[in-house]
Amino acid sequence: MSKGKVIVVAAPSGCGKSTIINAILEAGDLDLRFSVSATTRPPRPGEKDGVNYYFMSEEQFRDAIAEGEFIEYEEVYPGRFYGTLRSDVDRIINEGHNIVLDIDVNGALGVKEIYGPDAITVFIEPPSVAELRHRLESRGTESPEVIDERIDRAEYELSKAPLFDRRVVNDQLERAIHDVHNLIDGFTSL
Ligand code: 5GP
Q1: pTM as predicted
Q2: With contact defined as beta carbons under 8 Å apart, do 56 and 38 qualify?
Q3: I need a surface site. Which of 33, 41, 119, 173 has the fewest CB within 10 A?
């Protein structure tokens, strides 16, 4: 049995990344599992521990770092840590399944360095920063200060897009889902 592949999807917050990944997972035609990250941010309404994230205290997160449990981790926002657990990723690819990681740009580039040709990095772009602000405001889950913080972060992340293997602009959701689906299909059938 051959090992599974690693698909790393990064995008500024509000680019539709989760929607795109969920649509592809739900379509169910690709042998794809979702990598559940650990985070110290609190759950949003509807999010479940062990499904969307492993929600940890800062102390639990620091212990996991000290134990070498993360492939990569980042302080994506001040005081908010996110990390990919080595045990989950390696178990899934060793079982021959492909895994999709929804992580920030720096984490994505770090994972590519570790998995090399067994990984592909995909960057989802918004049509523009103004459109991104509009989407974040209409999602209504974040305060104005958090939205400003996310826009600053998005501008930084957009500057890293050229370092990714593939780029997909999400100006039309159905087309973006189709494009990302096809490129995962192509990569995992290699
Ligand atoms: P959110 O708080 O909106 O769920 O996620 C914020 C950002 O953290 C997103 O860009 C998401 O992809 C990223 N993220 C989620 N999990 C991880 C992880 O394990 N590692 C890294 N580096 N970033 C992550």
Answers
A1: 0.91
A2: yes
A3: 173
Q: How far, in Å, is the centroid of ligand 1 from the Cα of 103?
A: 4
- Which pLDDT tens digit goes with each residue over 107-151? 999 999 999 999 999 999 999 999 989 988 998 888 999 899 889
Question: With helix as H, strand as E and coil as C, how does the chain read?
Answer: CCCCCEEEEECCCCCCHHHHHHHHHHHCCCCEEECCEEECCCCCCCCCECCCEEECCHHHHHHHHHCCCEEEEEEEECCEEEEEEHHHHHHHHHCCCEEEEECCHHHHHHHHHHHHHHEEEEEEECCCHHHHHHHHHHHCCCCHHHHHHHHHHHHHHHCCHHHCCEEEECCCHHHHHHHHHHHHHHHHCC
State both tokens at 141.
Answer: 């889950």
- How far apart are the C-alpha atoms of 45 and 16, rounded to whole Å? 18
Cβ of 108 below 6 Å from ligand 1: no
Distance CA 17, CA 170 (A): 9
Per residue in 43-85, pLDDT (tens digit) is 999 999 999 999 999 999 999 999 999 999 999 888 999 999 9
Smallest CA separation from ligand 1 atom 7, residue:
104
Closest C-alpha to ligand 1, atom 11? 103
Q: Are 18 and 102 in contact (CB under 8 A)?
A: yes
